[in-house]
Amino acid sequence: MYRKFNADANTVCAQTISGLAQKPARRMSTDAGSQLLFRQLLDYKSYTYTYLLADPESREAVLIDPVIEMVDRDVALVRDLGLDLIYAVNTHVHADHVTGTGEIKKRVPGCKSVISKVSQAKADVHISEGDTLKFGRHSLECYSTPGHTDGCMSYVLRSQAMVFTGDAVLIRGCGRDAGKLYDSVHAKILSLPRHFKILPAHDYTGQMSSTVGEELQHNLRLTRTRDEFIKIMKNLNLPYPKQIDRALPANMVCGVYEAGES
Ligand SMILES: N[C@@H](CCC(=O)N[C@@H](CSS)C(=O)NCC(=O)O)C(=O)O
Q: Which GO terms describe its cellular component (predicted)?
């Protein structure tokens, strides 16, 4: 399904290239594998990571999982870096914070909101398994990874060996719910090459990334059998997310209520 993508996944290059000010003559290479602007941004209230990805050549950019309270920061960064933000993407309908995608759309003309079709939430673009989101020379491959919610998607940036897992896989942890989550995570995320970097939607322990190999070895939930996993998740008794009553209805409409809109 994804053969059209850069098969040379091992061409892993410096992922953090903040050189938008670089003149074209100083660029080291023109292949997509070598040039990505990458920023991991934190919302310190919900411990949500927002990711800004861009092709420094075309300047097309994507934000993954923006948070409404942090939209000023995100839009300012996009402007400072001279980027053309084309997509504001959600991994799923979040329960712990309100998405910034609707607010970003208002401030960045032409930016489209994205979420899975299965989520049934409002957005400009509804994606499904096997779809791709292109920005410049890069492509995010869309994988359905249900379990935490039915509409959860993970996004693979193969040329950089990165996977944005939302709440499906957290570092040494995972999202809520059990059987379906175990199956989709093992089939779609933990089956990626071991060097692929895992970039989750949250971390509550101050860690920023992991790898597939590391989680296969050290994730105390996901290394168990399916039955053990279901038992562990049942006994966690995770508390009700504080913002859930505000977040869920807002996130079904892209994070913003407009008078007259449903
Ligand atoms: N304290 C936070 C919620 C923390 C939480 O439950 N996070 C979710 C992902 S966001 S809904 C989760 O699945 N965590 C798994 C875990 O093991 O922590 C709040 O009140 O918002």
A: mitochondrion
